[in-house]
Amino acid sequence: MTSPDSCAQLNKQTRQRLVAKLAAAGLRITAPRLHLAHLLFRHGNRHVTAEALRDEAQASGLKVSQATVYNTLNQFQAAGLLRQVQVDQARSYFDTNIDAHHHFYVEDEARLIDIAADAVDVARLPESPAGYDVDRVEVIIRLDKSEPSK
Amino acid sequence: MTSPDSCAQLNKQTRQRLVAKLAAAGLRITAPRLHLAHLLFRHGNRHVTAEALRDEAQASGLKVSQATVYNTLNQFQAAGLLRQVQVDQARSYFDTNIDAHHHFYVEDEARLIDIAADAVDVARLPESPAGYDVDRVEVIIRLDKSEPSK
DNA sequence: ATTAATGCAAAATCTTTGCACTTTC
DNA sequence: GAAAGTGCAAAGATTTTGCATTAAT
Lengths: 150, 150
Fold this sequence. Notes:
Oligomer: homodimer
Largest sheet of chain A: 3 strands, antiparallel
Radius of gyration of chain A: 18 Å
Structural class of chain A: alpha+beta
CATH superfamily of the largest domain in chain A: Winged helix-like DNA-binding domain superfamily/Winged helix DNA-binding domain
Largest interface: A-B, 39 and 39 residues
CATH class of the largest domain in chain A: Mainly Alpha
């Protein structure tokens, strides 16, 4: 019933990788951070909400408060380990993909899908207002379910 | 001290235009709606938050509750008179520009700036996942203050 | 030892809702 | 007069904060 790679079973090698990652980001090594980092980074790129991550953490046996989940997500983001994606007024998504890329967003399902940076060609951008520099360019393609009835 | 075009002073012609606009959108004509519509649409394109609009309404002499401001903004949006822009986790912006266009966002100042659709050239888009259609494409260019110290 | 992280509950937002009352059509 | 809109306060939801306790450097 217990997941083979849930947090309690973190093997030495995985743990080492995560410790290195947190240390490189200048973060102290704590049990909650290691556990959450493992959940976030073990399987490729993910988009999570704070609530979903807490549920997942608790399901995997980690007792962690929602406040700590928020703190951790915000710290990971400040450290450059995560990116926050703002597509829905109701909740924030945290994206483990920190490379330049874009998103599909299925509003009906509150679901984000990555788009590789090179799959979109933004050929021309307007000049930034004087005194400002481009931090980053986000392309969000909002999707609807197809209507075959039409 | 009273603004010459605040709501109480809505002249007949302006009022007629707003009545027509609301009617065309299928909305009943009520005093709060006319007043808010006037504030929203009198001077070209704007980006407002619900709170800012309520403050502005009250400053112009209209007694309106925050709930009604939210209701009205949501109804206007549902009717296609406004568009909601999601760039900040903390608050929603409502944009009176309903044509296709994009945005600069100055995070430090919580300020949105329109970009004409033809000022950005999105030359190539990825294919949508099967079963979904593109609703719209949003380009958000996040800006930072220039750092001349660098 | 110092400094930072955690948990808990409470607070702070922003936004929506329920309901009595009023207004529009 | 039926249906919809409004105001108020209360409820919801997400996120942050204060503070005592615990853990990391």
